[in-house]
Design a protein that fits this description.
- By secondary structure, this protein is of the alpha+beta class.
- Helices cover 52% and strands 6% of the residues.
- It contains 22 helices and six strands.
- It has a four-stranded antiparallel beta sheet.
- A hairpin with a 7-residue loop joins strand 1 and strand 2.
- Helix 11 runs antiparallel to helix 12, helix 14 crosses helix 17 and helix 19 packs antiparallel against helix 20.
């Protein structure tokens, strides 16, 4: 039976409410509701007890169902969607005792609490789709013995770890019984085919779940499906002010934070900042702008074509890049960059003349004197990108000078 078949079987299992009751039972668990109110649905505390896991997983279920695409929602089925719960009934004391006897070891408290809250799980994150249950959790050496001799990891560690993930994208979630903290939690790792060796070490199963949840939120936000979109516009606004004040690091952080809340504008402006701070920005233009329709829609295809496409084609002049641009934005060319202020335009022309004559240092001096006076009435223009794309002037802008440009305060006539 293939992974897809196993996943379909698990998805078809009759869903339960977050209290562990079948959907047909409409009674409410008032005690659990009090726990939710007390512990906080929005809490990001690491869950440990069954009650804490129910609250955490109920919130995670709601987040997933709110942003999942139609295909994934269809796979889950109407009954599970109505329940709002991506889990199953919690493991009984007898099932927990049986699995611990089978394994020959007590389970770490956080993972045991998880199983008490839901014996298995669907859609744990972008790369792990199901979690094993008390019936099939086991030592990696017994379930996937070939993984204990893969050559790029600690074979002794791999031979002793517990495999807790089920269907996944070529990765395994592992708990190490030989690495136990003061709370009795086992260290957690991810082995994945796309990077050598084991990934980061996590202090517990709950920490690994939290990291996967953060990945889920960030990847969905960057596709325009933010879990927590509130505050994105304010972050963009603050980032713009910081950018014009020369606080490039602070501005970049604000724009990245806005992008994690699903802001296409924030994601675009983060790439604009990166154009000055990261010489190989073509990767971000491709991955963070052209690959995301919500970003292009937020700022307009003409702007992307005029401002960032020239940078992309400078660094990637091949036919594949032109095909990428055409596929994302339509025909290449025909877009004109926004007009610069008259004083700045005059300075750039003077610098070009000096550069043509071979006096590049004088040319840069003219540019450097003009940068603090640069301004724009367009809230989406935060730096003079023309300096990076102009056929003559771009050779003057070394990586150090590019950083200087965005760490120098610039005028902002848009605001009093």
């Amino acid at each position: 039976m293939g992974a897809h078949d196993r996943r379909q079987i698990r998805m078809s299992a009759r869903p339960v409410s977050l209290t562990g009751r079948r959907m047909g039972d409409r009674r409410r668990d008032q005690g659990l509701l009090q726990v939710i109110l007390k512990w906080g649905v929005a809490s990001r505390m690491r869950p440990c007890t069954a009650e804490q896991w129910r609250v955490y997983l109920a919130e995670y279920s709601a987040d997933f169902l709110r942003v999942a695409d139609s295909d994934r929602l269809h796979q889950l089925g109407d009954e599970r969607l109505a329940s709002g719960w991506l889990g199953f009934a919690g493991a009984s004391p007898e099932a927990l005792a049986a699995v611990e006897q089978r394994l020959g070891a007590p389970l770490p408290p956080g993972y045991r609490g998880f199983l008490q809250a839901s014996d298995g799980w669907l859609e744990m994150g972008p790369f792990v789709w199901t979690m094993r249950t008390t019936a099939d959790v086991g030592w990696l050496r017994d379930i996937e013995p070939e993984m204990c001799d893969v050559g790029d990891v600690d074979n002794e560690l791999m031979a002793r770890v517990l495999l807790v993930s089920g269907d996944a994208d070529a990765c395994y979630w592992l708990l190490d019984p030989a690495d136990v903290n003061h709370d009795g939690e086992w260290a957690a790792y991810v082995w994945a085919s796309w990077y050598p060796g084991l990934g980061d070490r996590f202090d517990s199963f709950a920490d690994l779940v939290a990291a996967e949840r953060e990945s889920f939120e960030e990847l969905n936000a960057r596709d325009g499906r933010a879990v927590e979109p509130a505050g994105a516009a304010e972050l963009v606004d603050e980032g713009r002010r910081m950018a014009l004040q020369g606080d490039a690091e602070g501005a970049a952080e604000r724009f990245e934070s806005a992008a994690r809340k699903g802001s296409g504008v924030g994601q675009y402006l983060a790439v604009v900042m990166a154009a000055f701070l990261q010489p190989q920005v073509h990767h971000r233009i491709r991955n963070d702008v052209l690959a995301h329709p919500h970003v292009v829609e937020a700022v307009g295809a003409e702007r992307v074509r005029a401002e960032l496409v020239p940078l992309l084609l400078q660094q990637e002049p091949g036919a594949w890049a032109q095909r990428l641009v055409k596929g994302s934005l339509g025909e290449i060319g025909g877009a004109s960059a926004a007009a610069e202020p008259a004083e700045f335009t005059a300075a750039l022309e003077q610098a070009r003349e000096l550069a043509r004559s071979g006096d590049t240092e004088a040319a840069w001096s003219v540019v450097a004197a003009a940068v603090p006076k640069w301004h724009s009435g367009d809230p989406l223009r935060i730096a003079p990108l023309a300096l990076l794309t102009d056929p003559i002037l771009r050779s003057l802008v070394t990586p150090q000078r590019a950083t200087w440009i965005v760490t120098t305060a610039r005028s902002d006539p848009v605001r009093p």
